[in-house]
Batch of 2 targets.
Target 1
Amino acid sequence: MSQEDIKIPVLLSERYRIISVLGSGGFCDTFLAEDTQMPSGRRCVIKQLKPVNNNDFQVSQLVQKRFQREAAILEQLGGASNQIPSLYAYFQTVEQFYLVQEWIDGQTLLQKVQQRGCLSESEVVSILISLLEVLEYVHSKGIIHRDIKPDNIMLRSSDSKPVLIDFGAVRETMGTVLNT
């Protein structure tokens, strides 16, 4: 899949230069980009909400609200933990919604296991202990990730710390109503 297949401008919002396509999921396309307005030209991840191919306005609104909630969660959590990507921007252009977040240089836990095979017990314990600290923090804010899997855990190159990514399926525990 290429950038042309997804139809996104080379320079988004007159600021972000798209470098490559990182992935395409059910509701979002994800890109690696460079922030041209930062002296460092820092890299970032841009998530573009796909248009909902459904004429149901309520479904479209629900998807947009979930995307906006992911941005709000990153804004709340990312700045306080270096194991959650920071939110850099959230904006809309001609009915397209974008979320710009910190790029984590590394590989997913899934990629590492596919590349190396099984991890040692000590490596697994180290990853789990570090992840539990992040999850304790996330849960203390009344948030549940709901999609923890090896593909949503980045192992940062600089320090091998696990970083929890993809907060698209989060659920806020506050105000949850149980149906009997």
Target 2
Amino acid sequence: MKLTLQKSNVNSKSEIQITGSKSESNRLLLLQALYSDIKIKNLSNSDDSNVMQQALQTSINVIDVHHAGTAMRFLTAFFATQNGREVTLTGSSRMKERPIQVLVEALNSLGSDITYLETTGCPPLKIKGNVLTKNKVTLKANVSSQYISALLLIAPKLENGLELTLEGEITSVPYIKMTLDLLNQIGVETVFDDDFIKVKPLNKELKAHSLIVESDWSSASYYYSIVALSEIGTEITLSAYKESSLQGDSALVNIYKQFGVETTFLNNTITFKKNSKNTNAIKLDLNNSPDIAQTIAVTCLGLGIKCHLTGLHTLKIKETDRLLALKNEIEKLGGKISVTNDSLSLEESIFLKSDCEIATYNDHRMAMSFAPLALKTSLQIADPMVVSKSYPTFWDDLKSIGFKISK
């Protein structure tokens, strides 16, 4: 299946409600499984959060998380703490290629019993739950922050808590801070000092906590791209968002100022408006928010401006090798792009080819980041329902603001 996106114009003013953050939802779902008095509002309706919720509630011994990388990492840590339970954790063919050795070694050093069933260093995993009494572990800091968050989320249930030392430059610090903030909200004491994180145990019963999940900033990125590619005066309002967000991708607010897009916060909504044009080259270090790299690169392609993005080393181990996928699809459209293991450079362009079919590589962000280009040219999106991984209503929401989309 594919969708055809005809060259479109969007409404001058639009309003959309975005589902809860997948990142916050999955963290809270794990904490809820550990502390049953936690109640969650505005939970993400994404495939990843549905997979996470089902896995935490099931009693079966073989659990398939499909493409859900966050669920794979968080569930590995969770089941390692479930004393007396044995599970096999598996996923899609791509998931079986994605590395998890750093997390497995850290958990095993704490006393867990996790073994590989196929390829060393990758899922599927056999996990025998234990009581983990050791409390000190060291990790390389430039790995996926989800490994670190997985350990932090189970730390309050460990007998002696956790002391985590990070070696080197830390990747995606905002996501680590998000995890620690959520722990603090339920009463867990934490310390984050340079390369050292300490989480104290919390083995008492909690008072009832009701936590509201903020809407997803990664999903907001596609609308920032749409406004940047639109006429001056175009504005979109999204809810529900906080000015003091825990999400790393809230960096969009400052980043998209470089595209002439200004953001206003009011009553848990954001309104962003195209106020000016920009033809200057974009240069960004996205070490703290790599998930918006695809959106930014495609925005620059649509505007015909140069960009150089760094801090992208984690993109190679996502749903696909996102750097290679970006290169392939941007070149189809006539763009000139070069990539390394942790960066991309896009040249200026004055022409976009029309009616190209964009491959999505089982990656929701490939589908959604290229969709805004329909404001500049017609294109087709292959396997469009891959967006359900994080944003199931994406195509309907685009239609509601003026996109012309057909099967």
